[in-house]
Amino acid sequence: MAQSVPVTTTSSLSGSESRIRHGTAEIGRRLRLTFENVSESDFLAILSHYREQRGGFDSFGFSTTTLAAALTPSGYAWLYASPPQVVDEHADVFTVACEFKAEPRGLVVAPGDAWRSFFSTFTPGATSNGIVSAAGAAWVTSSTTFTPGRTDFPLSPVAWFDGSDAAARTIVSGAFSALNDKSGNGWNLAQSDSSLRPALASSAINGLDAIQWPNSGNAKRLFNTNSATFTTAVVYAIVQWTDGSTFTDFCGIFNANDNSVAYWLIGQGGGTGLNVATFDTININSGSTNKVNNLLPDISSPRLIRATIAGGGSVSTTSGLAFGMDRNYGSLSR
Predict the structure, then answer these.
(1) Taking the model in full, what pTM does it have?
(2) pLDDT exceeds 80 at position 129
(3) Cα dist from 257 to 6, 86, 130, 316, whole Å
């Protein structure tokens, strides 16, 4: 279906130019300049400038009269519309034509509209450029240096526990007596009974330290009794099972600190899947297959698991959190 678009024509350095408006945004303003008596080195400099796309039109240093307000829309910058062209050459002296187009310096997202971002590369150690915006605000560019093993994206987890971080843990006689919440939300875990502390497994998972949970009914665990409401919809965990071919005694990965809510991440005793009273979808390394009924074979090697609740649900507790022990006092190996 054809649709009419408002078009106005005004004079420019090339004789005429068209402005096409969609709403209030100008998207069709162009400018053509011809340079005479250009040396070969200057032509090559122009060509190099085009290839690198640096700085746009302004960096050529044209006079302010050339960049009069009538030729430069407010909020726009001139960029190359096509490669520079040699229109005449005589005795190594060139006549070069350059065509430019006006592009917005910033875009505005209306209140409530969605925004998008992109990154040019995900190479570790490289700087990646992107565009970000909040609704109703101007688009701005940003850059992030990515480091191996991390994304450096801003995260705001409800709780974040890292057994490999020496600054976030307390080790006594080779075992964890405390593991602090790195999110800053205060869900720190501890164990005052030395007989119930899980061991430090040095360099156990991909060269990083881990927490060793014995596959037995001795109730080793880290926990807190924080009475604030803890609500979560997604749990990420890096795990590895190093014991038998089935879970024993409903081995726990992550659960509430008492029996007030249904199982969270709990291995099914005598089986290879999880008890699915709460988190019923388990994905391995961002895969699409649900492993909730047969997780154990996949985690015989280190794996990142993502646990969610069908339909986007969440689970809450006011009894605190427990790692390792569940209501039957089993525990996951790591």
Answers:
(1) 0.53
(2) no
(3) 65, 76, 42, 12
